[in-house]
Design brief:
single chain; alpha/beta; FAD/NAD(P)-binding domain; Enolase-like, domain 1; five-stranded parallel β-sheet; five-stranded antiparallel β-sheet; 24 strands; globular; binds nicotinamide-adenine-dinucleotide
Length: 425
């Protein structure tokens, strides 16, 4: 069997390595660097910044090149053929790169996403997250348009670097798709760290006067202006649909992404799409999981991956992590909500990280855990215990009765689960 994968982000390269390991002749085509957005201008460089006290381009480059070498080694060891160049769909299952045509039994499109911008005057005076990662100096004043994941992560990092940060968010709260309670608590935590966050703020234009950028925004009918030395546009990302001639290949798509079924197959049999290019949750681990779903379908094998249960983490200070249903999504359902605070957790208090909160939601009728939401240090690691419990259908009493080592931050989750049990009885 032959497989062509277009795009070498986490979705593309991980699926390629896995396919090749199964004995499938795999060609991975990419016109960008190995690792895609995640490694080169997303997750990894952002987390490198999170671990630094000032922007350090050398360290960032070293981290990227070390991980890129790892991917190159993985692809070589698994015998994936890597083709550098711009792919075009030449037929239902053939792809051209320059004058060379590659044929395969299946094609997986994994071309990712690009930064979105607002259609406002002066948008060109703003920078996107990629440019933000290349800054060598800390702006004295940073204005962030968009209080989503990218906006708040950069706000957090640059506030720590010493910038005076203002975040302008269009919705009534930050992180609009997250549990509202948790998002409100995050907003309060960030405000305590000196970040100014304006919600229900509609940015209308950006102007420049004597090198200073002025962001004009409305709250209700009232007009405001925020001066800044750097303005970050972080209002979302959009699927990268322009690089392939999808329409000519007969592949259905909308501006929100390529349409796929539950097996990640497009309307054209044998052509699959995974990751950001399909819209939905634009997360590296979702792309990788979708790649495994597509690969299983191509091989005619069963696949146990539940694409509806996705842990997500936001690397602010404090971190936010979430899995399963939010309280808002449980509306109309009989639930018990258990809560715990980091300030009652010995390890967190001892390590000076006592600003945090954990909430779990359990179904009253079955006792099963439905969702977990954590704000606080190590939330991005803790959330996976909740993901495992939910995935395996554990009830709150079962989870409560699993012994947790003391003193560990994991007791925060156990305490919230125990609280949910008390509320169920
Ligand atoms: P996002 O959708 O998370 O947030 C965009 C924010 O901009 C939203 O809060 C939205 O309400 C706001 N907005 C939209 N129009 C606006 C306007 N006119 N004025 C002010 N605010 C406006 O998108 P993002 O933060 O740009 O991130 C893009 C994608 O990348 C997301 O899917 C995100 O999940 C992913 N990502 C994930 C991580 C992570 O998992 N840690 C990190 C970075 C990015």
């Amino acid at each position: 069997m032959k497989l062509i994968i277009i795009g070498a982000g986490p979705g593309g390269y991980e699926t390629a390595a896995e396919a090749a390991a199964k004995g499938i002749e795999t060609i991975l085509i990419s016109d960008g660097p190995l690792g895609g957005t995640c490694l080169n201008e997303g997750c990894i460089p952002t987390k490198t910044l999170c671990a630094m006290s000032a922007p350090d381009q050398e360290r960032k480059a070293a981290v990227i090149s070390q991980l890129q070498a790892g991917i190159a080694q993985l692809l070589k060891a698994s015998k994936v053929t890597l083709v550098q160049g711009r792919a075009q769909l030449a037929g239902p299952r053939s792809v051209s790169v320059g004058d060379t045509i590659y044929e395969a039994d299946a094609v997986i499109i994994a071309t990712g996403s690009v930064s979105a911008s607002l259609p406002i005057p002066g948008a060109d005076l703003t920078v996107d997250s990629t440019a933000m990662l290349n800054l060598t100096e800390v702006p004295q004043r940073l204005c962030v348009i968009g209080g989503g994941v990218i906006g708040l992560e950069f706000a957090s990092v640059y506030a720590r670097f010493g910038s005076e940060v203002t975040v302008l968010e269009f919705c009534p709260g930050v992180l609009p798709r997250f549990d509202v309670d948790l998002a409100k608590r995050l907003k309060a935590s960030l405000a305590k760290r000196g970040i100014r966050i304006e919600t229900s703020a509609r940015v209308t234009s950006v102007t420049q006067e004597e090198g200073v950028r002025r962001v004009h925004w409305l709250k209700g009918d009232k007009e405001f202006q925020t001066d800044a030395d750097c303005v970050l546009m972080a209002v979302g990302r959009r699927p990268n649909l322009a690089t392939l001639d999808l329409a000519a290949a007969g592949i259905e798509f909308t501006p929100r992404g390529i349409k796929v079924d539950a097996n990640m197959q497009t309307n054209v049999p044998g052509v699959y799409a995974i990751g950001d290019v399909t819209g939905g949750m634009m997360l590296a681990h979702v792309a990788s999981a979708q790649g495994r779903v597509a690969l299983a379908h191509i091989c005619g094998e069963p696949c146990g991956i539940d694409l509806s249960l996705v842990p997500a983490a936001v690397f602010t200070v404090p971190e936010v992590a979430t899995v399963g249903l939010t309280e808002e999504e449980c509306e109309g359902r009989e639930t018990a909500v258990g809560k715990s605070n980091y300030r009652a957790n010995g390890k967190s208090v001892a390590s000076g990280e006592a600003d945090g909160y954990c909430k779990v939601i359990a179904d009253r009728a079955t006792g099963r855990l439905l969702g977990a939401h954590i704000l606080g240090a190590h939330a991005s690691d803790l959330i996976h215990e909740a993901a495992v419990l939910i995935a395996l259908g554990a009830t709150a009493p079962q989870a409560r009765d699993i012994i947790h080592a003391h003193p560990t931050v994991s007791e925060v989750l156990r305490d919230a689960i125990a609280d949910a049990c008390r509320r169920m009885s």
